[in-house]
Amino acid sequence: MVSRELAEKILSIAEELGYRRNPLASGLRTRRSYTVGVLIPDLTNPVFPPIVRGVERTLAAQGFTAVLADSAHDEENALAILENMSSRHVDGVILATAHRKDKLVEQCVQQGLPLVLVNRTVDDHNISAVINDDERGIRLAMRHLTSLGHRHIGHIGGPQTTSTGYTRYRAFLKTAREMGLKVERELIVNAKEYTEAAGQNALLQIIDSGKPFTAVIAANDMLALGCYDALAERGMRCPDDVSITGFNDMPFVDRFHPPLTTVHIPHHELGVQAALMLLERIRDPQAPAKLLRLEPRLIVRGSTRALS
Amino acid sequence: MVSRELAEKILSIAEELGYRRNPLASGLRTRRSYTVGVLIPDLTNPVFPPIVRGVERTLAAQGFTAVLADSAHDEENALAILENMSSRHVDGVILATAHRKDKLVEQCVQQGLPLVLVNRTVDDHNISAVINDDERGIRLAMRHLTSLGHRHIGHIGGPQTTSTGYTRYRAFLKTAREMGLKVERELIVNAKEYTEAAGQNALLQIIDSGKPFTAVIAANDMLALGCYDALAERGMRCPDDVSITGFNDMPFVDRFHPPLTTVHIPHHELGVQAALMLLERIRDPQAPAKLLRLEPRLIVRGSTRALS
Fold first, then answer.
1. Which of A8, A39, A275, B199 is 20 to 30 A from residue B12's alpha carbon, by CA?
2. What CATH number is given for B33-132+269-296 in this structure?
3. Cα B276 from chain centre
4. Could you tell me the pTM of the whole model?
5. Residue B53 and residue A46: Cβ atoms within 8 Å?
6. What contacts B44, CB < 8 A, 6 or more positions away?
């Protein structure tokens, strides 16, 4: 044991001599690298940057650095990235990529790597996660559309392998039943990916079914943008011919033509809470898993209008 | 020396037994971690994700992993992130954050860390970089506006501490002189940051100067969006009262209201070329520095119109 004073003196001399703390070496000693991996499914979806900002700032305030990676919707990519992160001794990971059954989550559990899910969760709820109340979000959108007089409402669902896609789709069916709306199968198409192209294809399929409809609830904003493209392709207008709602309130949707009515999720707060939860797990890996669900709200803009 | 066959057999048995290649350990042995740091100045600016995608895919094809970090326009953040990356033995870094005089670049040079700049460069051209022909981009925008009859053209410049802000501003002055336009000082404001808020403030300053103008060239798309906000705030319309051009053609600008006329830069290709250049430098750190300049083109959309 050396005195605190001596230790500080040694460190200051070492610093003068050009020595720097090597997180890797100190990782070996203290078993901490003060680095956290953050994996997102699609860097080009503007909903993720503000979530990542929330994570980064919260971690930085505790002396941790975030390293970010983009799986580009590809599980093989994601597994390779996780492998790289884990062999580089990150102290934990935050995954925004989760599928309802998820190989990455299994890997983390097997390796005992502290883990928090954000935005999406897995079916087996024994993993800590910070998510949105997806059911309530869909109910808000449905209530808004029916209050405007819409009765024939379609749904562009997300990938059913994700908790968001699945929960929002189930919520659509459930709310429609509660409201006494007839659920028409031709008006529901679940997209394979949360992309504009997938949303466009899904709405084209609905339009081409010939079933009449006046509104569509898209499972996220990227799908909603694809709906704009499908309407334009068929010479239809939003909101004149069809009202559209999204989910996420990602940056820039207020600037679109028309500005998108959507379910707002608290992006920054999702990131902050996920980071805090991960720091807790790093300090106490044996703590029980937690599920934190944040409340969304509806933002009404120009893409929805009353039936005349 | 072992035969290739034997080596492969050993690796396959090791894999079966659950051994994984530890990039850290092999980093110590081969002095390669097969990891590259990528630092961007603003994750919320949609121009960066497609550049990063280009980097990631090119690196992945060569067995390298990208770790990404966001400096949020803050040099102290950036230095801390670089320190973390470097002490974790990245093989090199790609910086999209460069200022004309840049502490991070100096740090990398001092440490002998292979380095490539992307999108922006430094005044001292002895550093490898992949950038755009910023002067030509501004000239394309000016030529477009003058061909529409505009003579009183303003400029919202970017931060003059960046090569993009400085080069585009100098190009605006130079092209205006070449075209015989009177350069009015009140119509030029250089923003402190490439953000919507900074663009908005800059255009408000120009509007409130009282000098008449019919068009504005913004140094990037985020500033151009801020111009939309400033016009709305003063009850003016784009393009009816003022034509606006941006720079970057970042994702989503075609969806804005009005869709933005802007200078397109080849995002993905910038990333691909920066990654290839870095891989070259990692293999041969003594190779001379290279500057690769990619040609931009003008995309005309709804934010510019002919003077009637």
1. A39
2. 3.40.50.2300
3. 17
4. 0.88
5. no
6. A46, A49, A50, A53, A251
